[in-house]
Automatic annotation (TrEMBL):
Membrane topology: Multi-pass membrane protein
Transmembrane segments: 37-57, 69-89, 101-125, 132-155, 161-186
The protein's name in its UniProt record: YIP1 family protein
Residues annotated as domain Yip1: 15-177
Species name: Roseinatronobacter bogoriensis subsp. barguzinensis
């Protein structure tokens, strides 16, 4: 597939309407590993820039810290997601590989940037619908992630995959809270 604007736009639309098919197409492209990593880095950079614009438009001070810190934070979150999707899926009998997971998570984040741009436009035109767009984006994210995991690992039950995602998020949040507490970084700590 030639990665011109029309093809990328068509793949974004396909991802939003038939995400499992879009994931299958991405997997069938046999994109080289270095291109997958480059795509991942580009998505991180775009996420940080769009996130900063969004925060500034909401009247906040912007990121607390440097853009480099936010890029490292975003990279850590997305790489954590890659490891979790790949590792948990494999532990449950899935067949996805790390490079495929990296590519699909990067693409999913790229598609979610569309929602971030819509949120920015709403802040400028109709700030009252910002919250609604956030809820719609979360629903789309969970739906697309469920379908991507099904395509990646060969799972057939969307309900089982969705429940697995929810339990995984809660499990990782608990582990993270415990680790942060052990390091003395718990919220509201003295």
């Amino acid at each position: 597939m030639n990665l011109n604007a029309a093809n990328v736009s068509a793949l974004v639309r396909l991802t939003m309407t038939r995400p499992r098919e879009a994931a299958g197409r991405l997997l069938d492209m046999n994109i080289p590993d270095d291109a997958r990593w480059l795509g991942f880095v580009i998505v991180v950079v775009l996420s940080v820039i769009i996130g900063q614009i969004s925060v500034l438009l909401m009247g906040e001070e912007g990121f607390q810290g440097s853009m480099l810190f936010m890029a490292m934070f975003q990279t850590s979150i997305l790489l954590g997601m890659v490891v979790a999707v790949q590792g948990i899926g494999r532990a449950l009998g899935g067949s996805g590989t790390f490079p495929d997971t990296l590519m699909l998570v990067a693409w999913l984040q790229f598609v979610m940037l569309v929602f971030q741009l819509i949120q920015i436009v709403s802040l400028l035109i109709l700030p009252g619908i910002f919250g609604l767009i956030t809820i719609v984006a979360l629903v789309f994210f969970m739906w697309m992630l469920t379908n991507f995991i099904m395509a990646l690992h060969g799972f057939v039950s969307p309900i089982k995959v969705f429940v697995g995602i929810i339990f995984s998020f809660f499990g990782m949040a608990i582990v993270l809270a415990i680790l942060l507490g052990m390091m003395g970084l718990a919220p509201g700590g003295v």
